[in-house]
Amino acid sequence: MTPITHVAGRRLALSNLEKVLYPGDGFTKGEVLHHYAGIAEVMLPHLRDRPVSFLRYPDGPSGQRFFSKNPPPGTPEWVRVARVERSDGAGEQVVIDDLPSLMWAANLVTEFHTPQWRLDAQGRADRLVLDLDPGEPATIVECGVVARWLRDRLAADGLTAYVKTSGSKGLHLLAPLVPAPSSEVTAYAKRLAVEAERELPDLALHRMTKKLRAGKVFVDFSQNAAAKTTATPYTLRARDYPTVSAPLTWAEVEHCEAPEDLVVLAQDVPSRLKQHGELLAPLVTGEGAGELP
Questions:
Q1: Does the pLDDT value for residue 1 go beyond 60?
Q2: What is the DSSP letter of 216?
Q3: pLDDT at residue 2, as a whole number
Q4: HSE, side-chain direction, 13 A CA sphere, residue 52
Q5: Treating both helix axes as pointing N-terminal to C-terminal, what angle do 29-47 and 99-106 enclose, rounded to 10 degrees?
Q6: Any idea where the DNA ligase D polymerase domain is (predicted)?
Q7: pLDDT (tens digit, 9 = 90+) per residue, 122-172?
Q8: CA distances from 42 to 39, 231, 234, 283 (A)
Q9: Average pLDDT rounded to a whole number, residues 93-111
Q10: Whole-angstrom Cα distance, residue 96 to residue 219?
């Protein structure tokens, strides 16, 4: 029988709670739901008013994965659905504004991905993102070197960079912006990526071409485009272990000597929040937001 629970007055059917989703350490679906319930206070502000794209992996990272922007079949009527302008015409997407909606979505077993803009300003980004993706044998250690260079370069333009793990192999840099057209943010981010490649020729790369990526860090600027999304802060990722796209301190990045130094698991997040607080709060509040140069 599927357990029924009530969350903030909403009735939810939660299924397969004992199912192991992360084979690396036996992390179960029930523990997935516990993770999201525990970090809802800090995650919801990053989801609120942004349409969600789902990367679902209901049988774990080795099972089938499918990406969807449309509301899943059976979406409850109380889950917010908003009209979103897309390159192929207008469509509808789910917006996660509250705890019941978050828990409903988490029960689908999904990564949460969101754009750099809010619904009331579609196509106008209020943050910049640079996705640093290492090509073997480079690792997150090399990403950290590139991240520090980009942090200082952004600071020279009056922008404050924050950093989080991608939850996969690399790092995400984010900077709060005075809202600007996504096309202009993308163009600026590309200039930064090209400049990083010029200044760090043995380490940074602005092109996606696979044959060029061995041992280098691809500075992916494309996620600033209005149609693109990035892993939402605090989302679990579809990996062997329950890794989280989690905020880091710059001291952690600077002192990283091995890839495992910057792995954050779901089990680590509560203690990190107690120690560091919400490191990405300025991305929500807009505090210190800078204008594009």
A1: no
A2: S
A3: 64
A4: 28
A5: 140
A6: 28-279
A7: 999 999 999 999 999 999 999 999 999 999 999 999 999 999 999 999 999
A8: 6, 15, 8, 12
A9: 97
A10: 29
Residue 113 near residue 237 (C-beta atoms within 8 A): no
Strand (E) or helix (H) holding 84: strand 80-84
The two tokens of residue 218 are 């691809």
Of 178, 162, 48, 85, the C-alpha closest to 126 is 178
The tens digit of pLDDT for each residue in 42-78 reads 999 999 999 999 999 999 999 999 999 999 999 999 9
Type of residue at 160: T
**SS3 at position 227:** coil
**Two tokens at 115?**
């754009």
Name the strands in the sheet holding 110-114, side by side, starting at the edge strand that comes first in the sequence. Answer: 66-68, 53-56, 110-114, 230-231
**In this prediction, what percent of the chain has a pLDDT beyond 90?**
92
Q: Is 68 exposed, middle or buried (0-12, 13-18, 19+ CB in 10 A)?
A: middle
Residue 196, both tokens: 């990083």
Q: Enumerate the β-bridge partners of residue 82.
A: 93
Q: Which amino acid is at 223?
A: Q
CB burial string 115-145: b at 16+ within 10 A, e below:
bbbbbeebebbbbbbbbbbbbeebbbbbbbb
Locus of tokens 């600033």 = 224
Look up tokens 């200082």; give the residue.
Answer: 152
Give helix 269-276 / helix 29-47 axis angle, nearest 10°.
Answer: 40
d(CA 27, CA 235): 15
Of residues 209 and 61, more confidently modeled: 61
The residue-averaged pLDDT of 235-262 equals 97
HSE-CB of 60 using CA atoms within 13 angstroms: 17
Q: Which amino acid is at 18?
A: E
